[in-house]
Amino acid sequence: MSFLSKLLGTAPDPREGVRPLWHRVIELAREPSFYSECGVADSVNGRFDLITAILCTVMVRIEATDMRSESALLAELFVEDMDAQLREFGINDVVVGKHVGKLMSVLGGRLGAYRSALTEKDRAKLTAAITRNVNFADEENPNAGCVADKLLALAERLAGYSDEDMLDASGVR
Asked: Which pTM was predicted?
């Protein structure tokens, strides 16, 4: 029966349980202070960099619990959203898969770069990773320390939420 449910699309989409958290990740990446105080480039690339940085912070928190499958579902929503964004930018079907593959590679690389810094609460390591991975309005004087401070503060706040509150996401700040 499970196979037929999947085939016919009658089973509920498991991603729906983490969709509120995905939307919250996007909202957090739109926080104006990242752009005004930290100098992140207010561009497609800068916004993408913040989405991945915040998503990585959330995924590290989730992976610290028994919710590893939810972390994978968040990555799937990331892919779904990026696919839609690429199509909106006019990328055609022939190459959109290649672009999504590159974006997944970027997410995986950044997750690897940020994970240990976030779990160890290592500001210097996180600042170095952010300097390499985030587009700033003033590339000569990136304010990566500001972004690192905000991500470490977010990680600290996320640690205080229960798993249920994380998935609900309405109170995640």
From this structure: 0.82
